[in-house]
Structure formats: structure tokens, C-alpha cells
Specification:
Elements (H helix, E strand, L loop, with lengths): L18 H7 L28 H5 L6 E5 L6 H14 L4 E5 L6 H5 L9 E2 L7 E5 L3 H13 L4 H6 L4 H13 L8 E5 L3 H38 L9 H20 L4 E7 L3 H16 L4 E9 L7 H19 L7 E6 L8 H11 L2
Parallel strand pairs: 1-5, 1-6, 2-4, 2-5, 6-7, 7-8
Antiparallel strand pairs: 3-4
């Protein structure tokens, strides 16, 4: 998370229960409590620019999926978590999902969200659930699948990224009745490279798994007669079948990413030359994949006036980076949201609500 200072604001963690029961506990009519004194902010670096995007994001029912991505360490998790809290406080039953292997969503909410199951978040006005996807299961599954099929390309691509599990979870959001109650789903995505690999994965699987499946078909006829003679003819799913189902799921995920009616990708960056350059490349790649992007959040903006010489120099660097954004052919067309640096750690629902009210106007 991109924050400074300290905040001690522990939250009582609800025990994981059935979704229906948890929804009854987290009442839609809950009264919003004032910010605790421990969260009173002494200094906000500079107010965010008066850009109003949230009303459009919260209105209607068709656009349901919001994906926040960008370079590592720019504050994606804090922005995603604050957006989820904002949606919930505006009457949307919301789910926030971390697909980032670093999994700082638990830190943002000050709750244990590990385990790959839905966890109710205490505090918002409408039901809010959080989920951190664990890539371990996917790693083991695809190591086994590719080993059995003699392929190494898919293993090398999938290993350590958990994209199989991510595909599984995203398709659940599309098809499972369990998730249909959520009117907003916010994704805290992995850093840029992981996100781009996810977008390109269906094409990769078409090439790599396609070869595996063709090989399977060639040897199937040769082994079928032998299996029949020895009474071993069976019709059971094998590793290649699992990979084929993965390819089908990933195609659905790609189509979801490209659906301008139901999905929006928000790029998060910080005002440095390196971060802006990476954000420009990210937008170019997203545009190439036809992923809809409307907004760019520039996080950690410093104040315009300071007696600190170091801060003044950093401010000049930030202004140079902001000028880069305004002149960049990939980024200049996006709605620019400037998020200030604050002097507290953004941790827990009250802090996230505070941050959300600044960023998501």
C-alpha cells in the first residue's frame, strides 16, 4: 500500500458464515458511524482534482466489474479496497477480489482474508465481502497436468502465477448463483506484467494446449484397440481435458475483460517518470486487447507548498510526471484523478472510507 504514517484502528472480524446469513448480519440499513478520533487526519498533501467519476460508476446495473491495475507499489490495493467500500456505502452489495500474489488486501482491511473463500467485511453500509485467491492449488494442478502430457511450455507460463485458479474464480463470478447477489465486483489485479500475461493467456493456450490435444487425438486411435483387448477402455477426464477446459474458461475471461458494457479497467500509477512510462505501455497493451479503460489514478501527490527542500524537489519531479501524462498519446485521453498523500496508514474500513471519499468523488 502506498501510504505513510501510522494508524491503529483494529476491526472486529466476523466469523466466516454462509453468504445468506452474513448478508443478514451486514444490514443494508446499517447506520454509518463517524470516523474514530484515532483516524483524524492531520494533513492531506493536496486535495484531489474535482473530477467526478463515481456517480457514473455507481449508477445502473450493467457495468459490474471494475479492475484496478498498474505497476507494483503504486497503491492499487488501497484504491481497490476504498472503491469497494465506497460501492458498499452507496447501496451496492460488493465483492473485492485480490489476484495479486502479494495479497495485501488483508492488510488493507485489517482482516484475515486468506484461504480462497469469501470473508464478510464489517463496517460498510451494504454487504461487502473480500476474497484473496490462493495460487498454490493452481501451481500444483498445472505442474501435474503438464508433466503428464509431456509439455513444458504451459508449465513455464503458468508456474508461479496462479492464473488457472484466477480463471476458475472469474468464471464463477459469471456463472455461479452464489455470486449473483453482488452488483459490483472489484478486482485488485497483480502488477502489470502478470495482468498482461493473463490477457494474452488464451492465445498462448490455443497454441500450446492445442498441440497437446492434437497429439492426444493421434495416439488415441492407436491405443484404443489395445485398451479394448485388455479391458482397460475407460472414458475419464485426464490432464489434457483439464487443460482444454482451462482454455475455454480463459476465452470467457478474455471476453469479460473486453465487454465495454460490463467491465472497466482503471490504471493506477504514481507521479514518477518510470511509473508513467509503464502506465503508458499498459494502456497501449490494454487497448490492443480491446479492454475498456476510462480513468487514470495518480496516487501520492505531494502538496504544492512546502518548507522542506527535499519535498519541493520531489514536487517538481511529480509536476514533470504529470506533464508527461498530459502529453502522452496513450494517457492524455483518460480521465485524470489525482489522489493525495496523507499522513496516516490506510488500513481498516474507516480509513478506506476516508480515502474513498477523497478519490472517488
Amino acid at each position: 500500500m502506498a501510504t505513510v504514517g501510522l494508524l491503529s484502528c483494529p476491526l472486529n472480524t466476523l466469523k466466516t458464515q454462509s453468504i445468506a446469513r452474513s448478508f443478514s448480519i451486514l444490514s443494508l440499513s446499517a447506520t454509518r458511524q463517524p470516523l474514530p478520533k484515532s483516524l483524524l487526519v492531520r494533513s492531506v498533501a493536496t486535495p484531489a482534482e474535482g473530477v467526478s467519476v463515481f456517480d457514473d460508476m455507481a449508477s445502473g446495473t450493467e457495468r459490474k466489474y471494475y479492475m484496478l491495475g498498474g505497476k507494483g507499489g503504486v497503491g492499487k490495493t488501497s484504491c481497490a479496497a476504498s472503491l469497494a467500500v465506497k460501492f458498499a456505502n452507496n447501496g451496492h452489495p460488493t465483492l473485492v477480489v485480490s489476484t495479486d500474489p502479494a495479497h495485501s488486501l488483508s492488510d488493507s482491511f485489517a482482516q484475515d482474508l486468506t484461504g480462497g473463500t469469501l470473508v464478510p467485511v464489517e463496517g460498510p453500509d451494504a454487504p461487502l465481502f473480500a476474497l484473496e485467491i490462493n495460487p498454490e492449488k493452481a501451481r500444483e494442478e498445472f505442474r501435474s497436468a503438464t508433466k503428464k502430457n509431456g509439455g513444458t511450455g504451459v508449465k513455464d507460463f503458468m508456474d508461479g502465477m496462479g492464473l488457472g485458479m484466477l480463471a476458475e474464480q472469474v468464471i464463477q463470478f459469471l456463472e455461479s448463483q452464489e455470486y449473483s447477489m453482488f452488483t459490483r465486483i472489484v478486482f485488485d489485479t497483480a502488477p502489470t506484467g502478470h495482468t498482461l500475461r493473463l490477457l494474452s493467456l488464451p492465445d498462448f493456450l490455443d497454441a500450446s494446449i492445442g498441440k497437446i490435444l492434437k497429439l492426444k487425438q493421434k495416439i488415441a486411435s492407436a491405443t484404443s484397440a489395445i485398451k479394448s483387448v485388455f479391458g482397460q477402455e475407460e472414458d475419464r477426464p485426464d490432464a489434457a481435458d483439464k487443460l482444454e477446459r482451462l482454455r475455454e474458461r480463459m476465452i470467457k475471461v478474455r471476453e469479460l475483460f473486453r465487454d465495454t458494457d460490463s467491465t472497466e479497467f482503471v490504471i493506477v500509477t504514481i507521479p514518477t517518470v518510470m511509473a508513467v512510462s509503464e502506465s503508458s505501455r499498459l494502456h497501449a497493451s490494454l487497448k490492443k486487447e480491446n479492454v475498456p479503460v476510462k480513468s487514470l489514478i495518480v496516487n501520492q501527490i505531494l502538496p504544492p507548498i512546502s518548507d522542506c527542500k527535499f519535498c519541493a524537489m520531489k514536487r517538481k519531479d511529480q509536476l514533470r510526471a504529470l506533464d508527461m501524462i498530459r502529453g502522452d498519446p496513450e494517457l492524455s485521453s483518460l480521465t485524470l484523478i489525482q489522489a493525495p498523500l496523507v499522513d496516516v496508514e490506510i488500513r481498516g474500513v474507516p480509513a478506506l472510507r476516508f480515502l474513498g471519499d477523497i478519490i472517488w468523488k
